[in-house]
Amino acid sequence: MTRHEFLKMIEVHHRWVQDLAEPIPFSSAELYLDARVADLITENEWNTSKIIRNFMPYVQQMITTMPVPSFSNPDARYWKFDSKGRYSVKGGYQKAIGFYDNPKNQSRNMLEGWWKFIWSISVPPKVRIFWWRLSKDLIPTASNLKMHHIPTAETCHYCGFGKESTIHALFTCHQSREVWKQTTYWSWIKKITNAPTLEICLWLKWTLTKTDFENLAVYTWAFWKARQTAYHGKISAISGMDIHWVLGWLKDYKKAQRSLHVTTQPEPQNSALYWTPPIENHWKLNVDACFNLNSQSFGIAGIVRGSNGEAILAFGRQINQPLSVLGAELLAIKYGILELKEHNLTSVTIETDSLLSKQAVFGEEDYLDYEGIWISEIKEMMKSVAVDNLVHVRRSANVIANALASFSSSSPTPFSWVNGEFPT
Asked: Alpha-carbon Rg of the chain, whole angstroms?
């Protein structure tokens, strides 16, 4: 029997598409349950129009990207419970005792690649953990809570239509879709239906490049976090949230990861752990930036202190434009230098707990957009204001600047306090 003849024998509703753990759902009744895969093939090519009419959007691309055999192959036995088709005594025993009767065990081998993929993507660990939980339907949606005997309504809290499953909460709820429309991934997201969670995950892996999947993974994590924050009443709604900061945040993470492996300009091991006053007749400016999830804005701030440790100047403002974390940290430095210039302060050391911003200012890497412009401006202003140095310190040595940035992120009113005007 040739491979093509074998395809003709396989019924369409069987699990014949790689990475689909359950029978393929139909979107129309055009195909009968005894239809064969060969019914979808015309002259050694997939019948695309028939596939589009009969299968869910997330399945269509999986099918059409499978190569149709153009020549006959020798017959071969294939053990479907092994990823390479090889029979083993262990596999036979597991089949005999009913191990593979559980759908989760049927798909065990082909899912090994998925788990390896999830743990290999270049995103922060908390995002990888979130996607591992998402894949296993372990995030606390209303439907999952109900299934674990927690008394709660299964209806979606936001749209009021249907059960709040994992896929509904993240992708198909109309409020969720309003957020996804802000991203470049809407063309994929709008194709998602309320199919099994794992199948959607595998389809996204199949469809997207690894970089695009990483971006989408962080978007999804940030959206779920905002959705939970809104549910607990800390923000008013999710449909209007701005998630453009996500890609900048991921970009900064990847840059920081790369910096761990470079051998040029290593960071000294003696970065200050606690704040210390400058020498007499000199000043220290500590700056920081902070993102507020509730207000969807950054806060930047700084404080200037002298040799006796007393503050003589502090400033802060809320930034509502979409920025990367690096961009916000650079903006804090820039505004800090502008404050120094306005108050005629020289002989100043600037301290930041952002290692990336220090490396950006003193490094040779070219940055595009606003980041590159601000780096150039900072370099020029440091010369004109006679800034002694820009140094990296630990967060514990930048506590007050961080507190002021956190305050600014939730306050729309900018402030600039000088000696004698500080609030109590």
From this structure: 28
58 assigned to some structural domain: yes
Question: CB within 8 A of 253, min separation 6: which ones?
Answer: 123, 124
In terms of domains, do 233 and 346 share one? no
**Are the CB atoms for 350 and 390 separated by under 8 Å?**
yes
70-73 contacts at long range (C-beta below 8 A, 24 or more positions apart): 70/44, 72/2, 72/3, 72/4, 73/2, 73/3
Q: Are residues 190 and 235 in the same domain?
A: yes
**Neighbouring residues of 150: CB distance < 8 A, sequence distance ≥ 6:** none
Name residue 45's beta-bridge partners: 42
Q: Do 233 and 129 belong to one domain? A: yes
- Contact (CB, 8 A) for 131 and 140: no
Average pLDDT, the chain: 78
Residues composing the chain: 424
Residue 421 CB partners (closer than 8 Å, separation 6+): none
Residues 67, 177 within the same domain = no
Domain count, the chain: 3
One-letter amino acid of 239? S
Contacts of residue 322, Cβ cutoff 8 Å, sequence gap at least 6: 242, 244, 245, 248
The tokens of 82 are what? 């092994």
On whether residue 399 sits in a domain, the answer given is yes
- Convert the pLDDT of each residue in 356-397 to its tens digit: 899 889 887 766 556 777 888 898 888 888 788 999 999 899
Which of 223, 243, 263 is a domain's end point? 243
- Looking at residue 130, its pLDDT comes to 93
Q: What residues make up the domain containing 198?
A: 108-243
Looking at the structure, tell me whether residues 52 and 119 fall in a common domain: no
Q: Do residues 305 and 284 lie in contact, with contact meaning Cβ atoms separated by under 8 Å? A: yes
By CB atoms closer than 10 A (0-12, 13-18, 19+), residue 222 is buried
- Kindly report the pTM of this predicted structure: 0.45
Tell me, yes or no, whether 50 and 137 share the same domain. no
Residue 81 in domain: no
State how beta strands 45-46 and 41-42 pair. Answer: antiparallel
| Unique residue bearing structure tokens 């005997």 | 149
